Amino acid sequence: MAPTTPTVVVPIDLKKKPNEQKLTLHNRWHPEIPPVAEVKVGELFRVEMVDWTGGAIKDNDSAIDVKTLDLSTVHYLSGPIKVVDEQGIPAKPGDLLAVEICNLGPLPGDEWGYTATFDRENGGGFLTDHFPCATKAIWYFEGIYAYSPHITGVRFPGLTHPGIIGTAPSMELLKIWNERERELEETGLQSLKLCEVLHTRPLAKLPLTEGCLLGQIQEGTPEWKKIAMEAARTIPGRENGGNCDIKNLSRGSKIYLPVFVDGANLSTGDMHFSQGDGEVTFCGAIEMSGFLDLKCEIIRGGMKEYLTPMGPTPLHVNPIFEIGPVEPRFSEWLVFEGISVDESGGQHYLDATVAYKRAVLNAIDYLSKFGYSKEQVYLLLSCCPCEGRISGIVDSPNAVATLAVPTAIFDQDIRPKSSKVPVGPRLVRKPDVLKCSYEGNLPTTENPGARI
Amino acid sequence: MAPTTPTVVVPIDLKKKPNEQKLTLHNRWHPEIPPVAEVKVGELFRVEMVDWTGGAIKDNDSAIDVKTLDLSTVHYLSGPIKVVDEQGIPAKPGDLLAVEICNLGPLPGDEWGYTATFDRENGGGFLTDHFPCATKAIWYFEGIYAYSPHITGVRFPGLTHPGIIGTAPSMELLKIWNERERELEETGLQSLKLCEVLHTRPLAKLPLTEGCLLGQIQEGTPEWKKIAMEAARTIPGRENGGNCDIKNLSRGSKIYLPVFVDGANLSTGDMHFSQGDGEVTFCGAIEMSGFLDLKCEIIRGGMKEYLTPMGPTPLHVNPIFEIGPVEPRFSEWLVFEGISVDESGGQHYLDATVAYKRAVLNAIDYLSKFGYSKEQVYLLLSCCPCEGRISGIVDSPNAVATLAVPTAIFDQDIRPKSSKVPVGPRLVRKPDVLKCSYEGNLPTTENPGARI
Amino acid sequence: MAPTTPTVVVPIDLKKKPNEQKLTLHNRWHPEIPPVAEVKVGELFRVEMVDWTGGAIKDNDSAIDVKTLDLSTVHYLSGPIKVVDEQGIPAKPGDLLAVEICNLGPLPGDEWGYTATFDRENGGGFLTDHFPCATKAIWYFEGIYAYSPHITGVRFPGLTHPGIIGTAPSMELLKIWNERERELEETGLQSLKLCEVLHTRPLAKLPLTEGCLLGQIQEGTPEWKKIAMEAARTIPGRENGGNCDIKNLSRGSKIYLPVFVDGANLSTGDMHFSQGDGEVTFCGAIEMSGFLDLKCEIIRGGMKEYLTPMGPTPLHVNPIFEIGPVEPRFSEWLVFEGISVDESGGQHYLDATVAYKRAVLNAIDYLSKFGYSKEQVYLLLSCCPCEGRISGIVDSPNAVATLAVPTAIFDQDIRPKSSKVPVGPRLVRKPDVLKCSYEGNLPTTENPGARI
Amino acid sequence: MAPTTPTVVVPIDLKKKPNEQKLTLHNRWHPEIPPVAEVKVGELFRVEMVDWTGGAIKDNDSAIDVKTLDLSTVHYLSGPIKVVDEQGIPAKPGDLLAVEICNLGPLPGDEWGYTATFDRENGGGFLTDHFPCATKAIWYFEGIYAYSPHITGVRFPGLTHPGIIGTAPSMELLKIWNERERELEETGLQSLKLCEVLHTRPLAKLPLTEGCLLGQIQEGTPEWKKIAMEAARTIPGRENGGNCDIKNLSRGSKIYLPVFVDGANLSTGDMHFSQGDGEVTFCGAIEMSGFLDLKCEIIRGGMKEYLTPMGPTPLHVNPIFEIGPVEPRFSEWLVFEGISVDESGGQHYLDATVAYKRAVLNAIDYLSKFGYSKEQVYLLLSCCPCEGRISGIVDSPNAVATLAVPTAIFDQDIRPKSSKVPVGPRLVRKPDVLKCSYEGNLPTTENPGARI
Which of A164, A200, A445, B111 would suit a FRET pair with B28, their CA atoms being 20 to 30 Å apart? Predict the structure, then answer.
């Protein structure tokens, strides 16, 4: 056997639930979740993973599963994996863990994914004030390509990547997270100056025991309760990497993660077949189960050597990434711009979030002229290989953000046409197949963003 | 003569000042600034332009010109240019003006540019709290490449583009601009919740007569005074395009601008040899004089056909852009991440501006380990072809922004090295050639961001 | 189960020989080899395949298996596969069969490959007069990357593709092949005017019963004998596609194959992890076993619609290919040139073969200055993602051919250095690990191309 | 003035003939043609050049100028330029001259070019047996794009490059050239085994006084006569570089030329706005006048250090090239294949020239189905950015060559369509505007390749 067949260190049985897997998954960050496997530097190993909801979202035409999803249970992660050097000495706090993504893909027999918008009462998304309903689109894979029965007329190659990859935090780092997020949760509503849109989304998700899964630590035990009350939720990306959602982290990428605990305790999950920059619908990539083939190096003392703390403690750092050399080539892009003026005409000061929101809304409105409902475009821009850029962040008072959409993913020419060219009849898509869980008050193309 | 030699419709004499040019320049947006030239659709025409300061910044080793720049005079624009169709009928409000950038470059004999940071008391920049001093780097061009005596060891191909291209606003649109920006200026200091860093930068630049240049309208006349008191400043990008600073708008790009006045009244300026996404130092691209070869089409009724208002009036729109097919290929990128936690450790809610700030600071700190001062890296990241992305904007409470730097622009390998590879001595650069206008209290690598 | 899980229509058991597989393989082209499977248009199906030698070459340090390989047995192909439309009607002669390559890769547990040079007495290669000995290099795969213990210091992403994909010829087409190749074989030696180098290689491989495997037709039967005496060898690419060795036929590619028999009878094999243009050593890609996920369309009457015969009969056509959108990005290439003057200084008239030979020899000599033996570079250029171009084919008397090598595959800078830059000690590679089957008279760097 | 404004060392006045220019041009290679300028290493300098015919081909609708072109006069080159180091010491035989192409483009006021086929009695082309008539297409430039009134419906960005760049040969090298080409000319007709097509083209162009221009050496003098009788013609690429026609030698490229005489004596000419690999029609790029901005380095002793003679003397070497990082991105290519079987069905042994001929013929036939005449496609494939590859050169008896055409250059979808998609009416182009100099016996689409 060739030395480069990856060893499966975390196997997944798709017929079982997250807590029934041979190596139980976890959905929180905590230093005391025990490793389920150990790997040596230089070893090629495979980590299998469920989709971020652990199978709660089904391949069908109804969004009821999205509407009722229990967000306390996500994301289900595979690991932690302890990393040791050739002499068996574990990675140590202060080291950098370099993780190369050698290969990845769907699990055989499970070559499909989904993109969804949450209900505004259950997580919402970037444009929840415009799109308050739960919606869902299913995607099927044909090798590198994805296509959807719910958003017809598009097909694109995926730049597949794990949404989440990170090391375990130390107790000290965990405390920093909990404190700063609790402060936001408690004081945020008073002071928040973002556009009103986002007000109704939860500000921060603090530790809670509900839905908590901690790997090999049995639910309900005192140890489990203690950890569950301390452990950080997996939604935001943080100093340990985590849910960074960087769409280019595909084959050939290398991630330099800070190490906070002995053995590094690497976890990963939330595989995406494809994602647009920003992952705007929140459940926004093409979410899937899958496998990762990884190889680790330890850079001893690398945190001090390469990372500079950006905050009050030496732990306020961020990972560094090297992007791989393989990605789809697109030659033509249509670029939508947004400035930091909100939908009510209000001026915001260099606010890239507002500017990006407007760029996305502009793109949705434009593309909905080509036979799609706005809900379809919102889902599409969340998961297709579009690029979201901060173009200008200094020209007071307007931040300029742009969203670039590759034109080749459409089966029609979506560029503006000179007045001289007679435009053929635009294709009529089937927005009705996009099922929404609300009866009687569906958002429609005529009534976008209807509030229930 | 071949039919495709461009007609020079706006010539520049580099030995003259902006108000001495044959076709006087302008530095404000107003519908009543009269066109200086007329072009037909399909015609290839050349527009020459001064650098955004009109020659105020010199090719030398001192930043005193940057420190003392009068910002009321920028940006000097060429135009307005009236656009008519083949029958001589002007573009009308409600049309789209499609402007193709066929070619561009420096003016012969002026193949250099500069990147600068403003003093925090005079405009500042994205990181003015960390870098409060005026600094300047000169760049020389060797065809597609730029190199700097002030930031040695880097050389990169430029993706040259105009920072500003736009149509004239109507009076109605101008009024919208002035009102929303005045409201920010007046109420902003009380309510602003951005990280403290940005507090001291001017919030909005309202109309003022000081420094105002209005093309063929003579300074001091009642007409000049009236317009100067109404005309919008050119700093922010707005509904008419303007200072959008989109770094990929190079050869082969096409810009679809809304038309608000008869003839469209196209103006352009602020040529950049190269810019990084965000243009973070504010005077942040490689600023230069230059020429643009353009070709226009009119899409009659295109605003209604293709743009959807995103705000209370039909004028709340944004241009659309098509990127050209030619740009430098880079195969390897090092990516720095930022989350919306500020330097004091404070948590912000999905704030992409804060996240991008942290990504840029992370990149500056990292790259300063390779023989550069932080001031040098700040200038470099503002003007080299780096990409600033909004990677995740939904994972409460953290926005994730990334800054991707192409590794090939450096003459050394800047990637983190495994602990096993002995690292050679890092190159010592010459940060001292970066002159700062403050005596006695220079920011240094040991004392970054010293406040004066 | 998702509808896009591919159905395995040709399974391979790596522990068995080609003639022991459940669906016996074949190594000849003939219309009467019966299909082993049937697929519908639009169906995603998987074809597994052995490496081209059916496992004869082993993962070890000796080239004795290469030296003694029985070339009468190659290439082992999977298929034929009958293709029918949605109504079950087979593809017909005159149709085009569009085959999309949706995915491909190594078989699990078999993630390795080899590149080899044949002995000049047993097949040789493009440079057999310079490199007459059998040599072999083993490559291991780490996801998208390959590396070799026999050619250290290089690592590159593969552009994996099937070397052979084709439809079955009709009896009429088969007759054309046999006649023209027999004529060459019989008259070639007298008239051949190519550089002497190539003289000793076999001119054409005519049908022979030795080594012949014909799928489900049992060896030794009269039917088998009849077909074996008629069936075309698989070495050359021909009108049916076949061994076209186009290195860019990777994920997302689409191949438009002419159909000559009912059902099309598609066969494929000879998987390559990576190949350089020209595949110069003959066993020259990184040869491997693997799987292909395919999807077919039938374009009824497409041969007449899209292909124009280029010869005396309507059968003298060639397939058309669409390349997929995903391939490794390389930004820097070193380009070696050759002109149609041979190694003895003799002038050839616009001979692209001679020009390409000289370009490859130039590249070998150049790269051997960086610590490699010439044998190592010859193997490397045969399998790495280098591009072989016909740059000029009209400038009498010299054809100009070029070979472009991506510099990023090396762990050292291989570009020529200015005389001012002190060059560090070049790395010493281990050419001795490249085992050659000749005792006592190995080609060495000092004695390249020694004739035995 | 900035230090990087290029010094014009060879100016061109487009109103004057080649022998009337201030620095007279030359159209032969000889060591005794005296330098017209001297440059230092590191200096940025500009070389202007006429088109290869020195203005003989006009911007009009008649091909009579092509039919009657005196080929004894081409190519007109600018130079020679003597290169010295910083101490003023010239480049010496045995050095390498590294020439960086910093910028290039058309001369102002002359933004057009042409592609032509020669009459088979006057130079012919790669497919002269199929296309025996003189034809011509004019191209106009709009910045990076070219379009033609004679081949409508295509528009593409140019990858502009000099067709010819080279150093002066030594007398010894010149003697080698003359001998080997004379031998071919004298013995070629008897032994030539290429496909008949090429028979009637001139085999080699030997020195002749007719049409000879030798820079500052006055015509008719004894010195002129002596040199003219010895000097090599400029048609073929050779050991000194020369007419290498490598289409990717654009901005940012670096060429490592061997030095054979003191000062290197660099000459350049034959600017191409764009060229396809192979430049198949012979006058086959978009031929234009233009300028090159260059910068030289001398690598002392570099010939021995980096080049290995491939022939009986140390002079049998070839230049090395580094390709620049900027070229048009194309994402979709249609690939045509050819094998070494000629149009009469005859089998050739691994003959890449025959294979490439068939690939080009296949592409011409295919594309002529989309509203073009075959003559138009022949011209188009000669000058558009298509790639000609040697895909397989070892699979006896067939060489496989491919021609990849970027689909984005057409204003219609040129891919084969599934039988289910109704194809719209194909556009009717205007082949008649392609003027041919033969009266009464034009090749037509119905009668391609008519022999006169």
Answer: B111
Q: Which of D188, D307, D393 is opposite residue C349, by nearest beta carbon?
A: D188
Which residues does chain B have within 8 Å of residue C408's beta carbon, measured at their own beta carbons? 331-332
The verdict on a CB contact (< 8 Å) between B330 and C331 is yes
Asked if B277 and A345 come within 8 Å (Cβ–Cβ), the reply is no
Cα dihedral D288/D289/D294/D299 (nearest 10): 70
| CB spacing of D103 vs B295 below 8 angstroms | no
Determine the Cα–Cα distance for residues A190 and C325; give it in Å rounded to an integer. 49
Closest to A66 (Cα-Cα) out of A51, A53, A50, A49: A53
Angle, alpha carbons D53-D54-D59 (nearest 5°): 80
To the nearest whole angstrom, how far is the Cα of A328 from the nearest Cα of chain C? 4
ipTM of the complex: 0.90
Task: Find all residues with CB under 8 Å of B36, minimum gap 6, and list them.
Answer: B9, B10, B23, B24, B79, B80, B81, B215, B216
D249 to chain C, closest Cα gap in Å? 10
Which distant-in-sequence residues (6+ apart) come within 8 Å of B30 by Cβ? B168, B169, B174, B214, B227, B230, B231, B232
Is domain D7-322 in CATH 2.60.120.580, yes or no?
yes
Helical residues (DSSP H) of C204-319, grouped into ranges: 222-230, 302-306
Among the listed residues C114, C67, C126, C129, the one whose alpha carbon sits nearest the alpha carbon of residue C448: C129
Round to whole Å and give the CA distance between D144 and D274: 10
SS3 A110: coil
- Measure in Å the smallest separation between the Cα of B248 and chain C Cα atoms: 18
Contact C402, C336 (CB under 8 A): yes
Say how far apart CA C419 and CA C423 lie, in whole Å: 9
Instruction: Report the candidate in D192, D196, D225 with the shortest Cα–Cα distance to residue D210.
Output: D225
Instruction: Tell me where in chain B the CATH 2.60.120.580 domain(s) lie.
Output: 7-322
d(CA B388, CA B390): 7
Chains that touch C (3 or more CB pairs under 8 A): A, B, D
Give the whole-angstrom CA distance, residue A226 versus residue D130: 85
Residue type, D85: D
Cβ atoms of B158 and B271 within 8 Å: the answer is: no
Residues of B in contact with C404 (CB under 8 A): none
Whether C394 sits inside 8 A of D349 (CB atoms) is no
Q: Which residues of A touch D331 (CB under 8 A)?
A: 328-332, 408
Across the interface, whether the CB atoms of A352 and B352 are under 8 A apart is answered yes
Q: Which residues of B touch D144 (CB under 8 A)?
A: 102-103, 251-252, 324, 326
Q: Which of D98, D280, D394 sits opposite C416 (nearest CB)?
A: D98
User: Do residues C180 and C236 lie in contact, with contact meaning Cβ atoms separated by under 8 Å?
Assistant: no
pTM equals 0.91
Q: Mutate which of A155, A159, A331, A407 to test chain D, going by most D C-beta atoms within 10 A? A: A331
Find, in chain B, the residue whose alpha carbon is nearest to that of D59: B2
Closest CA to A267 of A341, A214, A196, A323: A214
